[in-house]
Amino acid sequence: MSINSQRATPASSEHDLPGTVLHTDSPLVGVLVDQHERRLIAIRPIAKGSLLYRLEGHETPVPTKYSVQIAIDMHLDQSDARDATDRVRRRPWRYMNHSCDPNTRIADREVRAVRDIAVGDAVTFHYNTTEYEMAEPFECRCRTPVCDGVIRGAKFLTADQRARLGPWLADYLR
Q1: Residue 83: which residues within 8 A CB-CB, separation 6 or more?
Q2: What is this structure's pTM?
Q3: Alpha carbons 72 and 139: distance in angstroms, whole number
Q4: Which of 56, 63, 105, 171 has the fewest CB atoms within 10 Å, counting from its CB?
């Protein structure tokens, strides 16, 4: 898939056409509007180790479907966004999907590439590496050889899963 950065458009409403790539504050990622969802993708090649963006948002002790846990009792939520455009632009993490074989890692509020990411690739992270207990568990659809099945949070990892994810787990989950 080839994404021309000139195709990226400002987020104008919740009703953008499928195939549209919406701008974020990061020059590396955009939000692709699909038929049934929006998802974060690379709009430029991203080298392993690169900082994609820092996590910012409304701090809350209560997890939500779209929050990201950043400490034992602290989550970032996108509820402080003024509107849909602001949410896309300033809270790109809201559109970052889960994968059991992710291409980024979240640590210290930073999203960094753990391998090279090609233009058009989905930008993903493993939800169990930041979340102790998911507000809304779900059946994973990543179809990778290391798929964990139901994603519920680190609290529910088996010993084997915890060993595999150990280096990726947030400090507060160790």
Answers
A1: none
A2: 0.89
A3: 24
A4: 171
